[in-house]
Every structure is written in structure tokens, then in C-alpha cells.
Amino acid sequence: MGYLKTSVRDPTLIDNKPGAGAMLGAEAAVRSAADGYNILAVNMTHSVNATLFQGRVKFDLNKDLKPVAFLAGSPVLVVVPANSPIHSLEDLVKGAKQKPLNAGSSGLGTPSHLSLALFNQLNGTSIQHIPYKGGSPSLSDLMAGQLDVIFSNFPESIPFVKAGKLRAIAIATDQRNAQVPEVPTTAEAGMPKLNVEQWTAVMVPAATPDAVVNTLSQELVQIMQIPEVVARSTELGFRVDPKGPAEFTQFWNAEVQRWSEVIQAAGITAD
Q1: Which runs of consecutive H residues, i.e. helices, occur in 74-172?
Q2: Where would one find coiled-coil regions in this protein (predicted)?
């Protein structure tokens, strides 16, 4: 936000509103003035919530917010305990069909949860989902051997992989990552549909004028092209790929549809 403050020459205030699966912050944004000064940082969880909370809240993420810019994406890393007999996705499928396995997640409707659901659907497995309140406690239990696998957010698990406390068996992208070049992609493992990113983007209240949206989008895209921003984002495991309103709208709609199908097939609810 510091770069945005400098770029637009106006004070920038970050108002964190955690809770209710990120829906408290979303509602605050929906109810705010549509003047370009109120923006919402969104991620994959919001595209999941568009289905998960449909009819349960008094606003619609698809109708009450307008896409501004896609900023970056961070891949899901499939990790197991360092001493696990599972060394590949093929091993994971075989293991899951031989005996019950447990997978932790950072909570209901999170990328780790939906990635697991997608994996189960693609492979006919039934790995049990164990939701936690955040990524850290689930990773702690994984390292302690109380879980078999986690489809983890890259920035959360990569330090433990590098320290030898966890083993990464796949990265959910179509290209290998420079931080862990030895880890095969899900596409290489024969699962190209298991391509999942915890992406970051920006939306505004739906009534925000297009001219304001376009100006804000241009500023954000330019910020994401600053070498220092690219370097720091890459260091944290993000793939910087800024997109404007049209491309982000198309991406958003595809993500909502994709995860809606996974949610319905898995019978996932917000309860």
C-alpha cells in the first residue's frame, strides 16, 4: 500500500476485517462509497465464497463488486512429513486407496481445502479433510506426523521444505518454481487440472465509475512492474502477472465457475 500511496498521492489506510471466511471485509467494501477510495484486496477464497455463501449473506460478490486488477499468484505446494513413505502424487493416490489418509487445511473453503477436494475428485480418492484455524497449526501437526499431507500455500510451507522438516512432492502449476526446481509440477505428474494458485487481486464497489476503475487499475499494474516489487514478490513465492479489469473479470468468472463445480461435487457447505 505504500507504493499506492506514493502513486496516487493520497493517504492510504489499511482496515483489516478478518472473520467469517473473509466475508466481513467483503461486506464492508460492498457497503462503502463507490468513489475509488475504497478498495478490497481479494484472493482465491473470495471466488470460493461466491458460491459457498450464496444466499447466506445480504450481498453478492459477483454483482456487488467490480474487478480492478489481478496482481500475483502463489502456487499450492503439496507437502508431506520429511519421513513419509509418500514421494510423489502417484504414491499419494496409491496410499489413499490402500488406507485412510488425513489432510490438514488452513480452514473451510481455503485453497488448501479446495485443492484437496479437487485432488480427490480427479483421482477417485477420499482423503479425509481436517480443517485448522490457520496454516501454521496444520503444518505443525504435519511435521509431528499427525497428518499425512497438506496442499499448502507456498509461502507458508516453503521455509519448512528448505529446512528439511517437510518434503514437497508436487507444485500445483504447469511450470517448476525456481525456489524448488527439483519439485515436479502437477502437470508433469499427469494432473494438469490440479493447477491451483492463491492469487491476489483488487476489487471495488460495483457502482464505482469505469473511468475511476481504469485509473486505479493502471496505477496498480504499474506498481506491480516496479523491479523492487517484482523481486520481493518472487522471493516470497509469488508469480507477478498484473492484469487489467477485462482480463481479471474473465479470470474471476472462470475461478467462480471452477470452484462452484468442485464445491457442489464435494458437498462442501459453509457450516
Answers
A1: 89-98, 111-123, 135-143, 154-162
A2: none
Burial 219-236 (b: 16+ CB within 10 A, else e): bbbebbeeeebeeebeee
Assign domain 74-171 to its CATH architecture. 3-Layer(aba) Sandwich (3.40)
pTM of the predicted structure, to 2 decimals: 0.89
CA distance 223 to 158: 26
Question: Can you read off the three cell numbers belonging to residue 28?
Answer: 464492508
Distance CA 201, CA 66 (A): 11
Domain limits, CATH 3.40.190.10, in the chain: 74-171
Beta strand segments in the chain, E: 40-43, 65-81, 102-105, 128-131, 149-153, 166-171, 197-205, 239-243
| Distance set, CA 204 to CA 42, 180, 212, 216 (Å) | 10, 35, 10, 10
Where does 2-72+198-266 sit in CATH, by number? 3.40.190.150
DSSP state of 184: P
**Rounded Cα–Cα distance for residues 148 and 100 (Å):** 10
